[in-house]
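BACKBONE STRUCTURE TOKENS:
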Amino acid sequence: MEAVPIKSTLNNDFNNYGNGYSNKKSNNNRNIENKLKISGLTKTYNNGFKALDNVNLTLSNGMFGLLGPNGAGKSSLMRSLATLQTFDNGSIVFNGANSQVDPNVIRQCLGYLPQEFGVYPKVSAVQLLDYLAILKGVLDKSERKTQIDYLLGLTNLTEHKNKAVANYSGGMKQRFGIAQALLGSPKLLIIDEPTAGLDPAERNSFHNILSDIAEKMIIILSSHIVEDINNLCPKMAILNAGKVCFQGKPQALVNVLKDKLWTKTIAKNELEQVQQQHQLLSVRLKGGSYQIRLVADTNPDQGFLPAQADLEDAYFYTLKQQNC
């Protein structure tokens, strides 16, 4: 099936969805600055694996990127925030309420798109969204229909709404996941590896949707794709081995490498020798050759040229530090 881009909407469209669909929610949620504080969060699984190690983060409305390699603890943090699992130590406080004392404080205003999710067999998209909307507390039938119709249109699933979600393609399932996460006008939106299964057009349109709605809620975007974080998030953190290695603005991370990054293009058969001579930051295949990059205070060798650092360089550099 040919991929269909997700519709990009402007803030006015989402305002109609988030505020106009429920007058009660509109009056309570409009222009409210939400706050999420994560303090000393630690999680060790039964097999002894320590997934989270004293994680501390403070977030407010807008996009917040959580970057890290596979196995860094990102999904464990997302599941803890979504109250899908308990943690050993620490606290999660959302708008002044502790999630351990009352998990419903977060559940009632949460939108969650996990990295992988299952669906009921033979249940259509519109039926499943209706069921999920009820679970989220949208009990008025006409309001549910309005929200569902809007979200199906937003994600370009209207013509497929009566088909079983279990039979959707990977990209269509991901779009359905986006739709269900936005049910009920959430204040906290958690999105784990959201662009998996999306083609470039769908991915760009998905970015536009998130950018449009970010001012109304906290959006946590967890990814190992540096470009997603760089394009969307004014603030970010890097998580590795369960620890926060960096938190702040992406440009602040990039500035660490100012005037310290060097690059050189070499043939494939030269790579092994160069690796023996230098500690490389990254190796990128470009036009059949290797573009190597390394960090040094001065020009490390003949043929190297100064390079402009980007977030991917800064990310790799941070992961290579001993404290990360």
Summary: Residues 1-12, 18-29 have pLDDT under 50 and may be disordered. The first strand starts at residue 35 and ends at 44.
